Amino acid sequence: MLRPIAFSISCGALVFFPLAVQSGRAAATCFAPTRDWITGSDLAAAAPALAGLPPDLKIGYAPVPGLQRVFHPDELRRLAHSQGLPDPGLTINLCAAWPLLQLTPEQIRSAMEKTLAGHAPKIELVARSLAPAPPGEVVFPLTGLSAYSENAAVWKGYVLYAGSRHFDIWASVRVRVTETHLKAQGIIHAGERIAPGQWRTESYSGPPLREQILSDASAIEGLVARREFADGAPLLAIYFEAPKAVELGDTVTVIAGVGAAHIEALGQALSAGHCGDVISVRNPRSNRTFKARITAAGQVEVLPGTSVGLAASSPTNGNPI
């Protein structure tokens, strides 16, 4: 049964009062859930008479913050009986309810600074949600920021609790960051691998930008542009990637194995990819095509169970691979 939670005022904050709240006519001893489910260990911790319950027994979903899940004595008696336990002899209700506390400005600002780490953020908190929240990690993802301007904007976040549950929160803020931006020095063509002298650095101070701009000059060399950039254009991170370990048409070392056999041969890549990608490879001797996973630059490993017809045989059974 779900019932409203009782709250008390303490030092100006709304705090959940966990014990001896009223549920109907009977007093209830309340406990805080620890996860999505209320388990046997939760009830045993609240009432020692239920210590015989299997600790991992799932009894019911934990309530949403602000409500209680009440267990009446008759329900607890039936639960004990179903597990082969004696009558616990309880005469009061047990209830599960999340402890709630109003978030402080420091908690909110700290979570936002964590999201903007490395960007020297300055955050002015204009307003915030006042709804008490359950204990957990305060998160403000950058995707929750409603606008990127000098004016105050709503930033939506959440409290992560009970493993994966989200309790929605928000704040109105003015945000400024100070960071380095990399810009094109001359024209950069799509497919071109970046070399020294093709970028310059500029300082930026203002609201966060919706698109991430490359800022680490020590990490840009060798990246490949996925589109053309005009002289002076900001180098947007989304349009750069690490060079592929294998390019279309490359001759690659093919590694295959059957049991204890370990065979190496040459093949031709019919597609490109990075390490870990699965690509198509052609055996030039048999003209057969097979799938292999890229393990290093210019090297692939045949997927288990794949027949490729390499010009080699296993010393253990003499069957061609």
Summarize this, please?
This protein is mainly β and 321 residues long. It has helices spanning 40-46, 73-82, 105-115, 217-220, and strands at residues 2-4, 7-10, 13-16, 21-23, 26-31, 37-39, 58-61, 67-71, 93-96, 122-128, 137-139, 153-161, 165-184, 199-206, 224-225, 240-241, 251-258, 261-269, 278-282, 289-296, 299-302. The protein has four helices and 21 strands.
Per-chain topology:
Blueprint: E1 2-4, E2 7-10, E3 13-16, E4 21-23, E5 26-31, E6 37-39, H1 40-46, E7 58-61, E8 67-71, H2 73-82, E9 93-96, H3 105-115, E10 122-128, E11 137-139, E12 153-161, E13 165-184, E14 199-206, H4 217-220, E15 224-225, E16 240-241, E17 251-258, E18 261-269, E19 278-282, E20 289-296, E21 299-302
Parallel strand pairs: 5-9, 17-21
Antiparallel strand pairs: 1-8, 2-3, 4-5, 6-7, 8-9, 10-13, 11-12, 12-13, 13-14, 15-16, 17-18, 18-19, 19-20, 20-21
